[in-house]
Amino acid sequence: MTGNNPTDRRSKRGTKRHILTDKKGIPLSAIISSANTHDIKVVTDVVDNVVIKRSPSSKYRKGKGRIKGQQQHLCLDKGYNSEHEEQELIKRGYVLHIPIKKKKKGTNNEKDYS
Q: What is the DSSP letter of 31?
């Protein structure tokens, strides 16, 4: 006997833990969401709920660009790739690093009706 279809996302039970860490792996923020919540919907909440605030030297001045100081880099996985959310994180002064989704070789997504 087989279980539920793994591609059926609406009935997925459980939780997801979205954790933001520094470069040494020390947790700075954590958000818990239901398993069927897409990662994109909580990325700004994770960044906004940081326990240890960023240093003032790395904040972004409205209309005047970045204040001189160390840039804040944010590495995300492909699940967080969204144009709207990227713009929101850039407004908060982060330099984003998100892998590009590559198409698999040998697969053709277009249907041939000839």
A: E
Strand partners, 94: 72
Encode pLDDT of 31-53 as tens digits. 999 988 888 888 899 999 988 77
Q: By the 8 A CB rule, do 29 and 5 touch?
A: no
Which residue type does 66 have? R
Rounded Cα–Cα distance for residues 45 and 20 (Å): 11
pLDDT confidence of residue 79? 79
Please state, rounded to an integer, the average pLDDT across all residues of the chain.
Answer: 76
b/e per residue 33-59 (b: at least 16 CB within 10 A): beeebebeebbeebbeeeeeebeeeee
- Across 85-114, b (16+ Cβ under 10 Å) vs e yields bbeebeeebbeeebeeeeeeeeeeeeeeee
∠ CA 43-102-18, nearest 5°, is 20
Residue 114 has pLDDT above 50, yes or no: no
Q: Where are the domains of the chain?
A: 14-97
Specify whether the CB–CB gap between 42 and 17 falls below 8 A.
no
